[in-house]
Amino acid sequence: MIDSILNIGNLLRIKDSFFYYKTGFMQTWMIYALLSAFFAALTAIFGKLGLKSIDSDLATAIRTFFVLIITWGFVFCRNKTEGVFQLSKQNWLMLILSAMATGLSWLFYYRAMQIGKVSEVTIIDKTSIVITLILAFIFLREPLTPKILVSTGLIFAGMMVMVWK
Predict the structure, then answer these.
(1) Same structural domain, 66 and 108
(2) Percent of the chain with pLDDT over 70
(3) Structural domain harbouring 92
């Protein structure tokens, strides 16, 4: 089964080559982004179901433990461990800060999921898209095109509609 999961990337590249080069339909990163969104949706549903009669911090710790096992499993199965020794101090610092932000995000997300509705918590959580685009503009100098501004505004407006009482 692990081999099947690890080969998804190769299968997607083949599909991507076919779809993108033949029709201009989709690039590999788009497929991975859609898979990410799908699994993020499953994360919310499974997480909410798993939070019954358990502390949200404990649930996050259990979840994180298994994420650790799965991701290191991928690294070992794909023989990517040598990359650890090639990381710069900047890489380490940014990855550690990212991990801290992820941990805090998960802790707050699971607590919100425990006491709130999945539909409301998730839509508010997805305003991270808006915040990310703003931060990408400020820190990464990524452009805020009219298309991005309209999309961001729609995401924010959708969030407001969902949580408006």
Answers:
(1) yes
(2) 85
(3) 53-117
Measured torsion, CA atoms of residues 41, 44, 46, 49, in degrees rounded to the nearest 10: -140
By CB atoms closer than 10 A (0-12, 13-18, 19+), residue 106 is buried
- Do 78 and 6 form a contact (C-beta atoms < 8 A)? yes
pLDDT tens digits along 76-124: 999 999 989 999 999 999 999 999 999 999 999 999 999 999 988 998 9
Show the tokens assigned to 37: 């969104």
Q: Which two tokens stand for residue 142?
A: 């990524």
CA distance 61 to 4: 27
Q: Are residues 104 and 58 in the same domain?
A: yes
Check whether residue 85 and residue 107 sit in a common domain: yes
pLDDT above 50: residue 1: no
Beta carbons of 120 and 162 less than 8 angstroms apart: yes
Q: pTM for the complete prediction?
A: 0.74
At 55, is the secondary structure helix, strand, or coil?
A: coil
